[in-house]
Amino acid sequence: MTNKTLLATLLVFTAAAAPFKAALAVDCGKLQSTSFPDTRITLVEEVAPDPIWIYPPSLFTTMAERLANGPVGAQKPFCRVVGIIEKEINFEVWLPRDWNGKFQGVGNGGLTGAINYPAMGEALAHGYATASTDTGHRTQQGFFEDEWLEGHPERLVNFAYRAHHLMAVTSKQIVKAYYRKPAERAYYSGCSSGGWEGLSEAQRYPDDYDGIVAGAPAINFVQVRGILVAQMSLKNPQGTLTHDLAQRLAAAAVAKCDAQDGVKDGVIDDPRKCDFDPAELQCKSDSSKDCLSEAQVRTARALYGPMKSPGGMQLYPGAAYGASPLAELPVSEKTEPGHAAITLMLPKKPAWDVHTFNPDRDIPVLQKELGATLNATNPDLHRFEAHGGKLLMYHGWADPLLSPYNTLDYYSAVVKTMGGQQAAEKFVRLFMVPGMEHCRGGPGPDTFDAVASVDNWVEHGVPPDRLIAAHKGADGKTVDRTRPLCRYPQVARYKGSGSTAEAASFSCQTL
Prior knowledge:
By secondary structure, the protein is an alpha/beta fold. It contains 13 helices and 13 strands. 29% of the residues lie in helices and 16% in strands. The strands form three sheets. Strands 1-2-3-5-4-6-7-8-9 form a nine-stranded mixed β-sheet, sandwiched between helices. Helix 3 (153-179) packs across helix 4 (193-204). The chain is globular and about 75 Å long. 48% of the residues are buried.
């Protein structure tokens, strides 16, 4: 795989940025000798937009190359600063010449230890000074490598929350040194583990950012759904679902419930209202094909959840109808201790393995050992609100990797803690995305500018009631459908006239 790519290969947001403001900056090279607390600057360089700049390989850049459909335009010149905070928290800051006066930190994904160059490129294109960190460890092969955990408890804390906080603090100091004035505003954007990192910032370090975008947040690391799913497969191998059957389940639910919102468009607007049952795909005879056995029906029902322990403990919620009930990652017996990240995070090896794990006995211990470090489920956001912070959350209804119900549960807890819907909506809003898979992709419109919306909210006090999302056709470039995403609990409904492929034909309604 080549490591060449334009800085904005991966399109996450599409709307135009606010007008740029002129900024007087020091010479880029002088940052090399500038001192910042607990930080070593290892490289400072001016990067020109042409010829194409080649930056180091990263898990994020190789993913961007796989998703790209060609260049999206030349980038702007910027000052690149590479450094290390404390022992091994690697980070980069990019400082555009035509700065918009603001800073944007970007998130990671999975267990990655990599700089998110594509997300930085997108922020840079909109005029933001931007930063990313590898969270204190490096990975090269996959998004869920866990070898870096064993024997390094300090890496777990850095990964969980310290690295992103220190990145924000240090990066804003570098921004101030370069432009000779501090950033007017600071924003954060991330999805999946990046969404978890954003919520951790709001809960632990409410002064780091003025606005946070948190998509599909992985906030329940300790709920160990992967071990439970693997255990289910080992105990009942006849009930194991293939990828094809999982996709068939998703398609069958869409076929049954798609038109419930009045428009047949290949997505389910609110899967909670879908009355699909996996038993509808159960084989009629032993010779039937492309159907589910009785054992597979039981597995599917369990995966669509909500999962409960034998003792009645509420576990990680299941997928929503219209999504595959299987995560995109294969689950196998490699979920044994020594291979499962959760076991490597513990101070000592647990007595249980994937065969003997008992959620009623073992999850409370995991929560005691790791919950305070890893979970970002604290609904008390009073300090973030007092700072003037604004939080925009989103989640795809068709997400097969992280349950949208988990995000709904957290949002509901925030609403309750912060004094009810009207009070909470003053600083936090949630947008559910019909037909979108994990962070992006899927049959539903999945491209929208959440950062611009939260920026406008912070700058001008205009809370977002809806986001306009776009879906691109087979060529990956041409927009073939737009749709409003409504602030939860509102949903988009067809007005009864106009093209169902245009957002203007829909209104947001409370049902």
